[in-house]
Specification:
Layout lengths: L12 E9 L3 H16 L3 E2 L2 E4 L9 E10 L3 H14 L15 E7 L4 E3 L2 E3 L3 H4 L1 H10 L12 H7 L7 E4 L2 E2 L2 E2 L2
Helix pairs in contact: 1-2, 4-5
């Protein structure tokens, strides 16, 4: 799959993305990583975690965070992510909280805070959900969550671990285990 986007400037921006799937989880997560690498180049990947569904009764999810460095603007990234979801059978007609072949969300775009093209930055679920916060703490432990004054490691240290269960699972991508 080929994605075309136009770089907006020469200075790369650090962008964190959350990935989640609870339908054919391993296949869709692997395909998403392949497509993201094709679109954006080198990926920094968190370990993959399994977690229970939040907001509905359903199969467990696999979740991960991927960090990219890109010169693409947010307006160019969003359609790429939607296309990757669509290429993996994403059904946009279902309920907001329901089974997903693939869900990719922009968590942060540099240090932006606020609403950008309908995307809230940083995404508020980052600090609310263990399946997002733990992979962020693994991948960007010393980075401040924009607008919070706390690092992801500090936010994870404060998180009530009994609130949501998650556990690391072995996941191999391109010959390496994400851990």
């Amino acid at each position: 799959m080929t994605h075309t986007s136009r770089p907006t400037d020469a200075t790369p921006t650090v962008v964190a993305l959350s990935l989640g799937s609870n339908i054919n989880r391993y296949r869709h997560l692997g395909q998403a990583l392949d497509a993201l690498a094709d679109a954006f180049g080198q990926l920094r990947c968190s370990p993959v975690y399994e977690s229970e569904s939040v907001g509905f009764d359903g199969s467990n999810f696999l979740n991960s965070v991927v960090v990219i460095n890109t010169t693409f603007g947010l307006e160019d990234i969003s359609p790429i992510l939607k296309q990757i979801e669509d290429d993996n059978g994403r059904d946009r007609n279902g309920p907001k909280f329901g089974p997903r072949t693939l869900d990719i969300d922009v968590l942060t775009y540099g240090d932006r805070v606020g609403d950008y093209q309908g995307i809230e930055l940083p995404r508020q679920e980052t600090a609310r959900n263990a399946f997002v916060l733990k992979p962020m703490a693994d991948t960007l432990p010393d980075t401040l969550m924009p607008g919070s004054g706390l690092t992801y490691a500090e936010l994870w240290a404060q998180y009530p671990k009994e609130k949501q269960k998650l556990w690391a699972v072995p996941f191999e991508w391109r010959g390496r285990v994400l851990s």
